[in-house]
């Protein structure tokens, strides 16, 4: 970090259920907050599944670690083990354009989904582009209050190690992004109120006019806080 010309942020990836992930992860975040208080800290945390987790201390580890995350992380991307397992077990239509692929249920597939999430999130830092954003803009735009820092993540198309990427229509991808089947947390995103929302699109051949049209279409079914309708 001391050798960086322009240190932008720290990314930490850890689990919440195990003792090492929750304990060491919390301690590292605390040290970073103390040593680099002005540098944003992103935490991608995997929460245990109530159906597949058999470690009796997981609920305690998770709750204690969450308290440290709220205190020391600037932005938190929670990933649900159950959501990952369901995605990998399901027959998913990659990109919504036909050609159903059966994805194997395994740790490689689950890890690959999380890796793709972080890769997409940081791509604007690592590649040149006319509309690239600074990674810290995510915190500026999506964390309106200091303690409201948990982001709901989704991706489309969903790609695992055992499925190939297929191109999908932009309209369908917008719809999928707000579907509960594409969320990396077991929730229905249409059932509550949004404080903020950001859509990051990668790839060639995407017209701004199509993006704006889909944003206007999404506004008709998304409920936003009255003070932030944009």
Automatic annotation (TrEMBL):
Q: Which PROSITE patterns match?
A: TUBULIN
- Listed Pfam families: Tubulin, Tubulin_C
- Output the Gene Ontology terms for molecular function: GTP binding
Name a single GO cellular component.
Answer: microtubule
Any keyword Coiled coil?
no
Start and end residues of each Tubulin/FtsZ GTPase domain: 1-129
Q: Which GO terms describe its biological process?
A: microtubule-based process
Coiled coil where? none
Superkingdom of origin organism: Eukaryota
Keywords tagged on the record: GTP-binding, Microtubule, Nucleotide-binding
The record's InterPro entries line, in alphabetical order, gives: Epsilon_tubulin (IPR004057), Tub_FtsZ_C (IPR008280), Tubulin (IPR000217), Tubulin/FtsZ_2-layer-sand-dom (IPR018316), Tubulin/FtsZ_GTPase_sf (IPR036525), Tubulin_CS (IPR017975), Tubulin_FtsZ_GTPase (IPR003008)
Keyword GTP-binding in record: yes
Q: Which family does it belong to?
A: Belongs to the tubulin family.
Q: What is this protein called?
A: Tubulin epsilon chain
What is the scientific name of the source organism? Physocladia obscura
């Amino acid at each position: 970090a001391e050798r960086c010309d322009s240190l932008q942020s720290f990314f930490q990836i850890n689990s919440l259920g195990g003792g090492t992930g929750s304990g060491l992860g919390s301690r590292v975040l605390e040290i970073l907050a103390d040593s680099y208080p002005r540098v944003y800290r992103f935490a991608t945390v995997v929460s245990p599944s109530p159906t597949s987790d058999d470690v009796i201390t997981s609920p305690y580890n998770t709750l204690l670690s969450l308290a440290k995350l709220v205190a020391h992380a600037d932005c938190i991307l929670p990933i649900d083990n159950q959501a990952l397992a369901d995605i990998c077990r399901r027959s998913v239509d990659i990109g919504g354009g036909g050609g159903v692929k059966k994805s194997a249920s395994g740790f490689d597939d689950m890890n690959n989904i999380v890796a793709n999430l972080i890769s997409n999130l940081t791509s604007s830092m690592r590649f040149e582009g006319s509309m690239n954003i600074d990674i810290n803009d995510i915190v500026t735009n999506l964390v309106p209050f200091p303690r409201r820092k948990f982001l709901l993540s989704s991706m489309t198309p969903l790609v695992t190690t055992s499925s190939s990427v297929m191109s999908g229509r932009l309209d369908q991808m917008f719809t999928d992004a707000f579907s509960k089947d594409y969320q990396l947390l077991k929730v229905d995103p249409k059932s509550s109120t949004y404080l903020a929302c950001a859509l990051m699109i990668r790839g060639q051949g995407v017209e701004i006019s199509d993006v704006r049209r889909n944003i206007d279409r999404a506004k008709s079914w998304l409920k936003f806080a009255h003070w932030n309708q944009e």
